C-alpha cells in the first residue's frame, strides 16, 4: 500500500475524466471545455446533450434530443399514487429516491446494461425528474397534479408544473440557468458515489439513487435547503451581521459557504448572484438579495478578522436566494438541484461504464 491517509480524500486524483474541468485557485469551471458562465445562457437540453455526448449537438441532433426529453415527461398513475403515499413531512429528495427506485421497475430497458439502453434510461430520468418533484410538491400542498406541457422548455415546464401557471420569461430563463449551473461538478461527492456504484457494474438507476442519497446531505446539496432556512431565520438585512458573528462564536458552519476545491469565489455563485439581483428587481423586492449580500459581506470581514482568511459563497448560497424569489419551498430545494445534476450523473456513469475499473480504495487499519 502506498501513501498516507488523505482524510476526506482531499486532493486525491481518483480517475481521468473528459467531462468537467475545475481550477479551484483561479475559480474556473468548464463543461467539456466551455466556461460555465457562457453555457448558463443556453438551454438545459443543449448542455445536457453536451455533457452526455461530449460534443455540441447539430441542429437536428438537438431537435431529436429535446423532442425525446419532452415526450418522456409524463409519469404514470402508479408513480403518482405512490407519491401520494410518501410522508409529506419529508424532503422532496426522499420522495425522489423512492420514485426513482420504483421507476426502474417500469423501465423498458430494465435488464439491459449497454450504452444505448443506458442513454435511454438516463434520458427518461432527466425528463421525469421535474414531473416527480413538482407532483410531490403539489400533492404535499393538497393540490392536483399538473400534466406536463410537451412544448415548453425544460425549465419553463418545471415552473409551470409547480405552479399551474406559466412563468414569466425571466423566471423561465433563470430556472433554465439554474439547472445548467447545477448540472455537473467533476468528482463532487454525489457523482463519486454514482460512479462507485457504476464501477461494480450495477445498473444506472441504482447509481443515480446513490447520487441522490449523497446529494441530500447538508455538507453537499442539502446546503441549498439550509441556506433558504437561514434566510427565513434572519428575515431582515439588519440581522445578518449578528447571525454570522453568532455562527463564528459557536464554531458552526455557515451554510452555502466554503468549498473543498475552490479557494476563491465559486464561479457559479457569481452567476447566481447576478440572477438573484435580476429576479429581485423584476419582483420589486430586494429583501432576500439584500440579506444575502449582507451575509456575504459579514462572512468575508468576520472570517478574515477571526480566522485570518475569508470564506466565499459556494453554488448553494445565491441559488437558495434565487429559489426564494421563484417561490420554491425549502424542502424542495435539494431536489431541484438534483433535477439539474441528473445530466452530470448520467454523463459520469456512462463514462465510467465505458472504461471501467472497480473503485475500491484501502483503509489503514488502526
Ligand atoms: C454543492 C456543494 O456541495 S457545495 C458545498 C455545500 N456545503 C455547504 O455549504 C456547507 C458548509 N460548508 C462546509 O461545510 C465546507 O466548506 C465543505 C464541506 C463544503 C468543505 O469542507 P472541507 O473541504 O472538508 O473543509 P473543512 O470543513 O475541513 O474546512 C476547512 C476550514 O474552513 C472552515 N470552513 C469551511 N467552510 C466553512 C463554513 N461554511 N463556515 C465556517 N467555516 C468554514 C472550517 O471550519 C475549517 O476551519 P479550520 O481549518 O480553522 O478548522
Ligand atoms: O464539487 C463539490 O465538492 C461540491 C459542489 O460544488 C457540487 O457538487 O456542485
UniProtKB/TrEMBL annotation:
Signal peptide: none annotated. Pathway: Carbohydrate metabolism; tricarboxylic acid cycle. Its EC number is 2.3.3.16. It catalyses: oxaloacetate + acetyl-CoA + H2O = citrate + CoA + H(+). Keywords: Transferase, Tricarboxylic acid cycle. The keyword Amino-acid biosynthesis does not apply. One of its GO terms (cellular component) is cytoplasm. Gene3D superfamilies: Citrate Synthase, domain 1, Cytochrome P450-Terp, domain 2. The active site is at 259, 316. GO terms for biological process: carbohydrate metabolic process; tricarboxylic acid cycle. The keyword ATP-binding does not apply. InterPro entries: 2-MeCitrate/Citrate_synth_II, Citrate_synth-like_lrg_a-sub, Citrate_synth-like_sm_a-sub, Citrate_synthase, Citrate_synthase_AS, Citrate_synthase_bac-typ, Citrate_synthase_sf. PANTHER family: CITRATE SYNTHASE, CITRATE SYNTHASE, PEROXISOMAL. Belongs to the citrate synthase family. NCBIfam families: cit_synth_II (TIGR01800). This is Citrate synthase.
Amino acid at each position: 500500500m502506498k501513501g498516507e491517509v488523505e482524510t476526506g480524500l482531499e486532493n486525491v486524483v481518483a480517475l481521468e475524466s473528459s467531462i468537467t474541468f475545475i481550477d479551484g485557485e483561479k475559480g474556473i469551471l468548464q463543461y467539456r471545455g466551455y466556461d460555465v458562465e457562457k453555457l448558463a445562457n443556453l438551454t438545459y437540453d443543449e448542455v445536457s446533450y453536451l455533457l452526455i455526448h461530449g460534443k455540441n449537438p447539430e441542429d437536428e441532433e438537438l431537435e431529436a434530443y429535446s423532442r425525446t426529453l419532452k415526450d418522456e415527461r409524463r409519469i404514470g398513475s402508479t408513480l403518482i399514487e405512490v407519491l401520494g403515499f410518501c410522508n409529506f413531512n419529508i424532503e422532496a429528495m426522499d420522495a425522489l429516491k423512492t420514485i426513482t427506485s420504483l421507476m426502474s421497475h417500469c423501465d423498458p430497458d430494465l435488464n439491459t446494461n449497454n450504452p444505448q439502453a443506458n442513454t435511454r434510461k438516463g434520458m427518461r430520468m432527466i425528463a421525469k425528474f421535474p414531473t416527480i418533484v413538482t407532483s410531490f410538491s403539489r400533492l404535499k400542498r393538497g393540490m392536483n397534479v399538473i400534466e406536463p406541457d410537451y412544448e415548453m422548455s425544460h425549465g419553463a415546464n418545471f415552473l409551470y408544473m409547480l405552479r399551474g401557471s406559466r412563468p414569466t420569461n425571466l423566471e423561465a430563463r433563470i430556472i433554465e440557468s439554474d439547472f445548467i449551473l447545477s448540472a455537473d461538478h467533476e468528482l463532487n461527492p454525489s457523482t463519486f458515489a454514482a460512479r462507485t456504484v457504476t464501477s461494480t457494474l450495477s445498473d444506472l438507476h441504482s447509481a443515480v439513487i446513490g447520487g441522490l442519497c449523497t446529494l441530500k446531505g447538508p455538507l453537499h446539496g442539502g446546503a441549498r435547503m439550509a441556506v433558504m432556512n437561514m434566510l427565513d431565520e434572519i428575515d431582515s438585512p439588519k440581522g445578518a451581521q449578528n447571525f454570522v458573528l453568532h455562527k463564528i462564536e459557536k464554531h458552526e458552519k455557515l451554510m452555502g459557504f466554503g468549498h473543498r476545491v475552490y479557494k476563491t469565489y465559486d464561479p457559479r455563485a457569481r452567476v447566481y448572484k447576478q440572477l438573484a439581483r435580476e429576479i429581485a428587481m423584476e419582483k420589486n423586492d430586494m429583501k432576500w438579495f439584500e440579506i444575502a449580500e449582507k451575509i456575504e459581506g459579514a462572512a468575508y470581514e468576520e472570517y478574515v478578522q477571526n480566522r485570518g482568511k475569508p470564506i466565499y459563497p459556494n453554488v448553494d448560497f445565491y441559488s437558495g436566494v434565487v429559489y426564494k424569489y421563484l417561490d420554491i419551498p425549502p424542502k424542495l430545494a435539494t431536489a431541484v438541484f438534483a433535477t439539474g445534476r441528473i445530466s452530470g450523473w448520467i454523463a459520469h456513469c456512462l463514462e465510467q461504464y465505458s472504461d471501467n475499473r472497480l473503485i475500491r480504495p484501502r483503509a489503514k487499519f488502526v
